[in-house]
Every structure is written in C-alpha cells, then in structure tokens.
Amino acid sequence: MLRTQFEEELEKLDNQFYAMGNEVLGQINRTVRAFVSHDRELAQEVIADDTDVNEYEMKLEKKSLEIIALQQPVSQDLRTVITILKASSDLERMGDHAVSIAKATIRMKGEMRIKSVEEAISKMGREVKNFVEETLNLYLNGNADQAYEVAMMDETINEYFDQIRDLATEEIKANPELVITGRDYFEVISYLERIGDYAKNICEWVVYFETGKIVEM
C-alpha cells in the first residue's frame, strides 16, 4: 500500500472514531434526559440505538487489527491505530452504561421520586456529557498537556457522586419507603461516574499517542 493510501486509511479510522464518539455523546445526553423527565419512550430509543455503537466498535476493531496485521505500522502510525482501538472500546463501555441508565428509567415506573436528587443527577449528567465532549475535542485537536487538564474534570464528576449519594441517603433515612428508589439512584450515579472514568481513559490514550508513554491519571 502506498503511503498516501495508508494515510487515507488512518484518516478514515479517525473519522469513524469521532463519529462513534458523537453517537455515544448523544446517547449520554438522551439517557440522562429520559431519566430525569421519566420519559420511557426516549429510554427505549437509547436502548435500541446501542446496536449502532456496537457496530461502530466492531468495524473499528476489525479495521485496526487489519491494518496492524497487513501494514505492520511502526512508531506514530502504530500508536494511532492502538489509540483508536483502545479508545473505541472505552466509548463502547460508555454506551453500555447509557443503556443501563435507560433501563433504570423504565424499571422505575410507578416508584416514588425525590426531586432534589433528580435535579442533582441532571447536573451530574450535564457535567459527564461536557467531559465526554471535551475528551472528543481533545482527541481531535489536543496534546498531552491538555489531556491532563481535561482529565481533571473527572474530579467534579466524583464530587457529584459523593454529594448525590449523601443526599439520597439522608432522604431515605427520613422516609424508609424510598429505599427502592434510592437503590436506582445509586446505580444511576455509579453508571455516570463510570462514564467519567472511561472519558479519563481516553485522555490517557491521548497522552500515549503524543508521547508513547502509558500513564495513569
């Protein structure tokens, strides 16, 4: 394969990865909106659209492994392929957690709700969406130094997790009938927190792409 053709293949991988990222970003946005608005139809859409995310990952994995096997890339080219291969797996897991939140939306039909907790979950969801969006922008245009800055957004996600957990716990203590509702809230914020962890993973892969070093942020 000529160098120009090889570069075109890498560019296609880049574009597919970014398209997958935008699909996952949309999933996160819709699943949080569905949860806090109790919109079960929208939650069903999130679940149904997960096949698109899975197909993106399978295509990216297949193409990445094909390039490694047939072209035997080295140095920066190899890091490009590995970064996409690993980061697409992180995106797929984000999509899985978005689906889990959608399933919680459907499962909570008829349960008592806690308005203050759901308002906080909505804010946490926006922060998670912003984090993933910044991570995708970092992948396109960023560098290793910026990766560390973007990764710090995960601290805000963790703070939301702690605050909402404590808030829900206090509400349940005041009204034990909310214990089942609380269980679902705890699950949802855990899913959002994990999405943040996977976004941070992508920041680590950007550092690897830029420097060749595997780091843990």
UniProtKB/TrEMBL annotation:
Q: Name one Pfam family in it.
A: PhoU
Q: Name one GO biological process term.
A: intracellular phosphate ion homeostasis
Sorted alphabetically, the Gene Ontology cellular component annotations on this record are: cytoplasm
Q: Which InterPro entries match?
A: PhoU, PhoU-like_sf, PhoU_dom
List keywords of the entry alphabetically: Cytoplasm, Phosphate transport, Transport
Q: Where in the cell is it found?
A: Cytoplasm
Which residue numbers delimit the PhoU domain?
20-104, 121-206
Q: Which SUPFAM superfamilies match?
A: PhoU-like
Q: What does this protein do?
A: Plays a role in the regulation of phosphate uptake.
Q: Which family does it belong to?
A: Belongs to the PhoU family.
Under the subunit heading, UniProt states:
Homodimer.
The record's section on NCBIfam families has: phoU_full
This chain's protein is named Phosphate-specific transport system accessory protein PhoU
Q: Species name for this entry?
A: Streptococcus himalayensis
